[in-house]
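Researcher: Going back to the complex we discussed earlier. I've cleaned up the inputs and rechecked each line, so this should be the final set. Can you rerun the prediction on the complete assembly and write out the structure?
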Amino acid sequence: MAGNSFGDLFRITTYGESHGKAIGVIIDGCPSQIDIDEDFIQSELDKRKPGQSKITTQRKESDIAQILSGVFEGKSTGTPIAINIPNEDQRSKDYSHIKDKFRPSHADYTYQMKYGIRDYRGGGRSSARETAARVAAGAIAKLFLKQHGIEIFAHVSGVGQLEAPNLDVSDLTELVSLRESNIVRCADPATAAEMIEFIDQIRKNGDTVGGRISTVIRGLPVGLGEPVFDKLHADLGKAMLSINAVHGFEYGSGFAGSEMLGSEHNDIFIAEEGKATRTKTNFSGGIQGGLSNGMDITFRTAFKPVATIMRDQATIDESGSETTISGKGRHDPCVVPRAVIIVEAMAALVIADHLLKYQSNAR
Amino acid sequence: MAGNSFGDLFRITTYGESHGKAIGVIIDGCPSQIDIDEDFIQSELDKRKPGQSKITTQRKESDIAQILSGVFEGKSTGTPIAINIPNEDQRSKDYSHIKDKFRPSHADYTYQMKYGIRDYRGGGRSSARETAARVAAGAIAKLFLKQHGIEIFAHVSGVGQLEAPNLDVSDLTELVSLRESNIVRCADPATAAEMIEFIDQIRKNGDTVGGRISTVIRGLPVGLGEPVFDKLHADLGKAMLSINAVHGFEYGSGFAGSEMLGSEHNDIFIAEEGKATRTKTNFSGGIQGGLSNGMDITFRTAFKPVATIMRDQATIDESGSETTISGKGRHDPCVVPRAVIIVEAMAALVIADHLLKYQSNAR
Amino acid sequence: MAGNSFGDLFRITTYGESHGKAIGVIIDGCPSQIDIDEDFIQSELDKRKPGQSKITTQRKESDIAQILSGVFEGKSTGTPIAINIPNEDQRSKDYSHIKDKFRPSHADYTYQMKYGIRDYRGGGRSSARETAARVAAGAIAKLFLKQHGIEIFAHVSGVGQLEAPNLDVSDLTELVSLRESNIVRCADPATAAEMIEFIDQIRKNGDTVGGRISTVIRGLPVGLGEPVFDKLHADLGKAMLSINAVHGFEYGSGFAGSEMLGSEHNDIFIAEEGKATRTKTNFSGGIQGGLSNGMDITFRTAFKPVATIMRDQATIDESGSETTISGKGRHDPCVVPRAVIIVEAMAALVIADHLLKYQSNAR
Amino acid sequence: MAGNSFGDLFRITTYGESHGKAIGVIIDGCPSQIDIDEDFIQSELDKRKPGQSKITTQRKESDIAQILSGVFEGKSTGTPIAINIPNEDQRSKDYSHIKDKFRPSHADYTYQMKYGIRDYRGGGRSSARETAARVAAGAIAKLFLKQHGIEIFAHVSGVGQLEAPNLDVSDLTELVSLRESNIVRCADPATAAEMIEFIDQIRKNGDTVGGRISTVIRGLPVGLGEPVFDKLHADLGKAMLSINAVHGFEYGSGFAGSEMLGSEHNDIFIAEEGKATRTKTNFSGGIQGGLSNGMDITFRTAFKPVATIMRDQATIDESGSETTISGKGRHDPCVVPRAVIIVEAMAALVIADHLLKYQSNAR
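Model: Rerun complete. Updated structure for the full complex:
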């Protein structure tokens, strides 16, 4: 249980360090006969990769996915799909200045204490570079879910104190277009412009800022999720919290719902053709008792500001002596624009896993 | 992976329906030679049981824990500890009015759709009664953690829009006393009085309200947690989100942290005797890179208002026809006072599991 | 991974010591809407319980199964099925003579060294009494498999050097009748008579003897099993080897097959109606590449002689001093007659688990 | 649970098809600070690779292991170790003759039925080529076990009806030398010569033959193994049965033990310096109650004859029509000489996993 696997039936295991030879993933449990569209996988990776715009890190990584197994003549065979992504930018010298220092609010100190050794280059295993492997695996999951008519949409709904208004989510495909029309990946263009301006200012100050991502999942059958511990939202929450920098998760009404009265919060069923297919409101976020109820799944994820700032900070070194440290090169001033696709990937992995569990009982 | 187990090395599996013969739990993986204090287990169950005060449900359950195995001459033997809690209040007639109806924002509909059958009495398996088994298991975990000097403290920090001020957490034992001095289990007496007054008013209106619980875990070694998916906060988040009615989880700075700048948010190390034992601030919530850093673990959990209200609500029945439904008897107007001990139990189970994982590598 | 659970999707967790309050099991993952025939469960337990005949132990246990959860109005609900079996014969005084002694070829010594404490009464957790819980769970699995037309048949094919001839297995139901017509549970009546005579003689000598059980599983779809580690025969093998006293497992041609030539051993396909539904021979034991091929699954399990003999044996005590020990009361002179139903139960659990896995991909 | 992972705490996941781009493995849970000797890993792979001698297949594969992650400056870092082994001999044309045919006693038919698609080239995923990944992972496990003074030795003890006499196992290092001194890997030189002669004759006849491998594990602490399902021998048995072509497993006295009397079979303790460190005999195979007892672990594994023979065999094709098939090129006439190192690898993986479990309780 060393922690590098996620999922039970649709299970991924990732490997790789920021500046090692490669990162990658094995996807075990992907059903056979799924069309594996390699261009799609690459397009997903491209949404996460560094160097996309002025508000992301300028590290150069082309992030080319190599499928090593599990695909035959364009289709999944039901055997493990291994995807390897070579690291190109392995300039270890860039990181000599942090070899013996613990960067504030990074994992340097905790890794060193846990393992007694660490690959300090670029954060090693604790680097968010690992999430490229998740995105590749998530792309496979999305290809599987597509066959079941399941859609996932995430966008940047908040940066710092800026918050996008609620979206009309009736057409998720259109929202993707809106989101991809700007570099901050907020589907509300007006807010997007403000966010970009704000992040750029932050970046020029050598500082960083946190943000929030909102997600909608549509098209699930009723009953996905496994009581009582593997509730659908509990697994979604764990998935989101496992992403670097995430500090909070809420679904449906979330924290705001905890301020409400039951008479306001209850979602009243609407009968259609003798079936309960909808509710008037969706404070439940599409989940009741841990099981999908057929409504949109909605949740929100909070990301802390990136810890690497371009300013001098006091810190300590391995010997316990006080010293100072400063970020070098260019880092992400705000992580959420690139994290949108990671959020979608992890959501897809959770849903794929639960869909297989749902099918196992063959209702 | 039917979902009724939690944890890997310190693993629990719960069973039981609200109005079946019993609920209970098997704890597999509890180390041997732990003193099993049955009075302590019972006192923990007593904090969760119904009928404690005017602001909790009046259902009568004495919740007596019977240890069936795994304990010999007062000590754990390393074999599975089975704990059974017989149900006393099995009056099925109380629930005939919901046999064919789906209660709004309850799990009736989703369970029926998933399984094609459900024990409708009191919500069956989806009832929060299941959490008594978690509390019993959590008590075993606490007895284990006590041997390692680990403390866990939770209290009600918010009810509706009422919010307790930040506590001085230097003495957790004293905070437990303060918390237990009032029926809402808020460690700030002034706020507690307001909360009780507010909940009682809500109850008289036949309504319910949500709330929030804040938790502190103290005394962990540095390095608990397993990158990259089984981060300590990811497992804590899943644990919390698996509790009935929880809609949100945040640790450290949480959602508020996503509005901050990196220069404000970074926790600067303090060197003491040549070791990095503390940070000036704790926006990280005691966790960096998914691993405990030796500071207090802090997190917050949001609970939606209880779905059963004492008012008529529109709903539908199994045939899809519109009907109305109303809560009967007395239910909890607010779940957080009883949930405090559930939060502590789940936190204890996560920490126990991660402590065994930590030990497995025998550093 | 403390080892008291078996299976992934159809998962059981057992608890209980030989002379504790109870033993029992939670079955998690049993599909909903299965008819739970309690009489059948009890009849299975009766086949394993002690005191059945002159060639089994005379310990008195009625082994009454109490279903505590997961069944509603006679059907499984998809939630955990907890079954508790109270221990009646808890006369601890019988075991004071072994409190400080390690019985040869028993688990006393290894449990004491592993856990630093043990419930020495009747072997505690290491007692084969634990297998009653497996039989109860296996009965549930059989009820599930019955709906899929899957049959399992095991019988005693060898005791000491006595070996039954190969059976005509065309009618498994008839073979069950033949097996149950004698107390040694061998479906060949002539060999059964010899076995009974032999075991009774062994018993009178205060000695014990080993034996072998042969099993046939019929009616599986093609493709059960999960390459490459969870091959169907690998999971069957683990299941069998987890039963007390089992020292060997082979499937299909087994050890004898390792002496054969490929030209003799290959199973040639027979085409019927344009499909490969049978092979001329079945040295493969119904499994190719770890997956069921539609032929009968066949395997054989070897049990060592019971370690408790009614004779003085040299041994040592906890202080390391030499001493002697002798069995008291009456123990099984040969374990296989009662183990037949345990073998069937474990086989049923493996197949149920793999059937759910098979269904998860919804072919 | 798609079956491509093995182990819990020391867990491997393999990938790759016989004629795809590569095969490989992720090892998750290897403790940090283990010296990773790449030459040793390669020397282990060399013992398994094809083309070693006249009695093995002539396929050309250099089987070069590439470590992609988890190792820094020669030591394990506690993060996943990914090892990739590119396939060199990808001549797909060799396999066009089996594209539409199901080879007898191979996995072609069952894979096709399970997945509806298969990479037919060289058996695809069902090829024993996958075991190279196991050998690489096993080498890592051995490096870990070496630090704990644990030794594993396997050799070919039987081929067809030839059987080596019992060995003097007092010096396992010397036995390795004896084993490696001949191409059949039997540590008894006289029997080895007979085996080689026999296999070569079989090969010339275009036939194949089965065999047996015997294993000794030395140096375990007392108490490895987890009752009641994850008994040490149950996990060893599953590990062995998961190897291609294995049809049987027995430990200690095995099948022969099932013919013995308890008075013969019991292992009497010998007290040394006030501790029970040895038993006079070792019919228990070093395991009592599923836990190691400090004596040598001994077990034996039976391999069926290789299914690919150089003769015409009747079979059927995908349309269900009768046809004939014949092996092409050169295949292994007997699998056991190359399987010795696979057996050792799987044994090492089981022990490494159980050692971490053992350590988790920090006795």
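Model: Worth noting: The radius of gyration of chain A is 21 Å.
Researcher: Good, that matches what I expected from the previous run.
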